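stage 2 :: seqdesign
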């Protein structure tokens, strides 16, 4: 019997190793297709990065290459890694979007969005603010982790505070095209019924893989609440998301944290840090971020 068990175990191990070998083969194929890289493109195109683009294009090397080359072109002009907190700090004054001072059960960085706290009208700067915090969330991912989680609180949301459909479309395109496989899950907590109409429009622009990661949570729906709690420790989860933690966004504290991260980002990407140490903010108790893993 022990012989059969060993054979079964060996066969199972081979089955597990096979996809990994195929994945490695595809990554090497994509590397060869891209050709020599240098500078920031080389820093960006880690094996984990190539794997994400391959996953986003169902492991089709040609399509993944096209997608990645478009991202590298976008990054060379938009320069998301050069955005500094003082450039977008006004967007964060109300705490409508910030990095949480806790992680999910899988150690992932968490972004908290509160669209009802919209405080500006410049769509370009709102997108720039989101891109900055996407880059910051990536900077703070633990080693071996490529994804992040979003928590979205709809308190105070209405059509007057919602972004225009065109801006929503542009935002979705940037996230899907240039940050593939970065979103693990997004929990929309207690969205009002009128949001459903907006969601139907927005969902039209989403890749099915992305839309499947969006989960609606209603406090009176036990199944949806349990799903969210399977991702988050209730003791860490803020009360506005049905948890036990009291969280108050402090803009000055958050700004100090972002200033520290700006220095680390500059060091990682290899350019001098020339931002002003502006005093603008965050949620108390956040730990200093680890070295960046992109």
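stage 2 :: out
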């Amino acid at each position: 019997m022990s012989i059969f068990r060993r054979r079964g175990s060996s066969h199972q191990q081979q089955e597990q190793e096979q996809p990994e070998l195929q994945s490695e083969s595809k990554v090497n194929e994509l590397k060869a297709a891209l050709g020599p890289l240098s500078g920031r493109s080389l820093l960006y195109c880690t094996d984990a990065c190539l794997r994400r683009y391959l996953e986003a294009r169902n492991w089709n090397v040609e399509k993944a290459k096209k997608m990645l080359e478009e991202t590298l072109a976008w990054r060379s002009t938009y320069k998301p890694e050069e955005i500094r907190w003082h450039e977008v700090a006004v967007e964060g004054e109300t705490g409508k979007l910030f990095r949480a001072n806790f992680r999910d059960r899988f150690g992932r960085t968490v972004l908290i969005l509160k669209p009802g706290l919209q405080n500006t009208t410049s769509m370009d700067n709102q997108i720039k603010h989101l891109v900055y915090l996407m880059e910051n969330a990536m900077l703070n991912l633990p080693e071996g982790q490529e994804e992040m989680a979003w928590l979205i609180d709809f308190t105070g949301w209405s059509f007057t505070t919602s972004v225009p459909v065109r801006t929503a479309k542009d935002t979705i395109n940037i996230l899907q095209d240039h940050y593939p496989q970065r979103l693990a899950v997004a929990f929309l907590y207690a969205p009002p019924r009128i949001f459903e109409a907006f969601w139907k429009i927005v969902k039209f622009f989403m890749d099915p893989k992305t839309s499947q990661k969006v989960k609606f949570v209603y406090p009176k729906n036990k199944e949806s609440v349990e799903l969210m709690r399977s991702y988050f420790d209730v003791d860490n989860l803020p009360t506005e998301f049905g948890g036990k933690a009291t969280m108050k966004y402090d803009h000055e504290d958050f700004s100090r944290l972002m200033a520290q991260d700006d220095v680390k980002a500059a060091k990682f990407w290899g350019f001098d840090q020339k931002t002003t140490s502006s005093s603008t903010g965050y949620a108390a108790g956040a730990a200093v971020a680890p070295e960046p893993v992109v």
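stage 3 :: structure notes
- The mean pLDDT is 87.
- The radius of gyration is 20 Å.
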